[in-house]
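User: Hey, quick favor. My workstation is busy. Could you predict this chain's structure for me?
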Amino acid sequence: MVGLFAWMIRRDLGVVTVDLAVERWAEARATAFTDGVLGALTHLGDTETIVGIGIAVAGGNENVIARNRVTRSERYGIAVFPTARFVVFDPGATEPGPPWRPRGNRVFRNVATGSGRADLALATGSGKSNCFRSNAVERVLPRGLQTRTCVGVSPAGDASVASELTRPVRVMFDQTIRRRDPPWYTSMPVPAPQPNMPD
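Assistant: No problem, here it is.
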């Protein structure tokens, strides 16, 4: 599957590849997000894990994130991190596991600037062979995340990124609702007519 980014408006939209086992086989795999422009992102709405991230690879595997421009994201420009296998909102329930661990993702030739915490981020607990190279960025977590080649790389990830993005979804959701006043859908511009899928 190839995803082509569009210019995002109103600071409330972004792009995500996410694994959540609300379907039987939920692995987000082998998707390419290329040649997009995203600006001033504060909210990315699939799960509350990814609020304030321009491009999020949440547990996905073997994805390509290339030649995108991401500016002024509230938290992270491009982030790769594990995600819950199931979303559980019952405060008495334990998070089912193990989480989906992103592996084999390639993030290259992107421009990401002005992000609140880091322009590129990899969380501790991610899988092997995630590669970040040739990206024009100002800040990365962990330090030394970018490499010259993708051959044999498996960066360790950053514990502070993991502590922020891999908490129980219900906790992140509650915190987000407390600190935000999301806009009503009626305040958003009406989209232009779109072609329907063929029968």
